[in-house]
Amino acid sequence: MSEFLRVERKGAIATVWIDRQAKMNTMTVAMRNEFPAMFMGLDGDDAVRVVVIRGAGGKAFSAGGDVAEFLTLAPADLELWGDTLTWAERCRKPVIAAIDGYAMGAGLELALACDFRIATRRSEFAFPEVRLGMIPGSGGTQRAIRLIGMTRGKLFMMTGQRIPAERAEAWGLITQCVADDTLDSAVDALAGDLAERAPLALRTLKTVLNRGADAPLETALELERKAYAWLRSTHDYEEGVKSFVEKRPPRYRGR
Fold it and tell me: Could you give the number of structural domains in the chain?
């Protein structure tokens, strides 16, 4: 792993730190190329139940990509480069973006690939690419319009404007806007809550929600039914029912 990305583990929660503070946590090509292997590793680690992504320094989650590198890449490179941030979504475990400060360009695209986005009130969000003669190219256009709708999406992306966290919450771009000094407690509360849930159920639910959202209703309903039926064959399903009947806390094993 590069000097600008690190993973810290505490119990069932793994925190990925983007730590390039001198450059507002902008991401180099090398950093972006580390995400697939990093998320595959976290996905395969049974000890990890929840993943949190944070930007170090308190000024930016990530202010985007390293613009100075952009002209060094060929079109074919950019096509593959645009897929690297999707691995937060591909990870079968819940992924939380803890945002304090700027989340712009590729930084916002990474956050949108996460399942939850909790941001401080001082945070700001933007897709400024259009001001540089380009467009968001790592999932930003499609994930944003699915969250905030076409009308707001066009205004947001085609002007390249910045919006504050409270408006981002009202639009549905982020999950929750919190006071600047309560980000840690809000993230810890959500991560702790998720870590207590049955891992297989969470993994299956994430897949059903993500895959079903853009499928025809009948297809999505069939996916839901089959996923539910499959869970019946697992230890965690049986343990959830038994613990409820026996009035005791469940002991999920992820099996």
Answer: 2
The model's pLDDT over 191-226, given as tens digits with 9 standing for 90+, comes to 999 999 999 999 999 999 999 999 999 999 999 999
* Same domain? 179 vs 224: no
- Does the residue 250 lie in any domain? no
Based on the residue annotation, tell me whether 109 is a catalytic residue of this protein.
yes
Q: How far apart are CA 29 and CA 66, in angstroms?
A: 8
Measured between its terminal Cα atoms, the distance across the chain in Å is: 30
Same domain? 163 vs 74: yes
Interval 161-189: pLDDT, tens: 999 999 999 999 999 999 999 999 999 99
Active site residue 218: no
Q: By the 8 A CB rule, do 204 and 212 touch?
A: no
pTM (2 decimals)?
0.95
| Residue listed under structure tokens 């401080």 | 120
Nearest to 204 by CA among 232, 244, 243, 239: 232
Which of 34, 109, 124, 169 does the annotation list as catalytic?
A: 109
Residue of 30, 54, 45 lying closest to 91 (CA atoms): 45
Which one of the listed residues 129, 166, 222, 246 is annotated catalytic? 129
